[in-house]
Amino acid sequence: MKTLVFATNNAHKLEEVRHIVQGKVHIVSLADIGCHEEIPEEQPTLEGNALQKARFIHSRYHVDCFADDTGLEVQALHGAPGVRSARYAGPGHDSVANMRKLLEEMRGQTDRRARFRTVIALIIDGEEKLFEGIVNGSIIEEERGTGGFGYDPLFIPEGYDRTFAELGDDIKNRVSHRAIATGSLADYLRTLYPTKP
Ligand code: IMP
What we know:
- This protein is α/β, with parallel strands linked by helices.
- The protein has helices spanning 11-20, 46-61, 95-105, 164-167, 169-175, 177-192; strands at residues 2-6, 25-28, 65-74, 81-82, 113-124, 127-139, 155-157.
- Helix 5 packs across helix 6.
- The longest helix is centred in the N-terminal third of the chain and has 16 residues, at 46-61.
- The model has no long low-confidence stretch (mean pLDDT 94).
- The structure holds inosinic acid.
- The site of inosinic acid has 17 residues, from strand 3 and helix 3.
């Protein structure tokens, strides 16, 4: 089975991606390779940030690796918070404050359409490749549910009537932006390393 380092310090993401590719790709964490550094993400796009994070790990550790960057893109806010999703309410990664700010910005808005977009940057045998996953949905008016992380309690994916935080890991990991992008990554790996009949 192919082994890849997932360049993230987010334990939720690591767990989700391991769940999504279980049995197909062996995912190693940054801690497993002895990396405890903050990884820079200073670019103006999700693509730029995903590449910056993957290149950082590849250049230091010379391992096949990938990184993801995710943004919540809200139609009525012209795509905000987007690439600034993690710091929407200011520096730090405070999901409660970010959700509060989003609800304030959306107060009185009738157009609640939004989407999560994940970009994964893979570096394998020195080659770079990008994968994208999008899930459309809408922003509700108050948090619901305790599962997931980040903005999950405010987001209902299309075709459901519960938030990602209410739907639970099994459903989220089948339909989410990260599931779609990670699925494309796994498909690509299968083209590079086909299993013998
Ligand atoms: P990043 O990809 O770690 O930079 O995440 C950007 C922001 O989006 C952070 O505030 C995360 O908490 C949030 N986020 C990333 N992925 C998800 C998700 O799957 N659900 C909800 N929020 C997410």
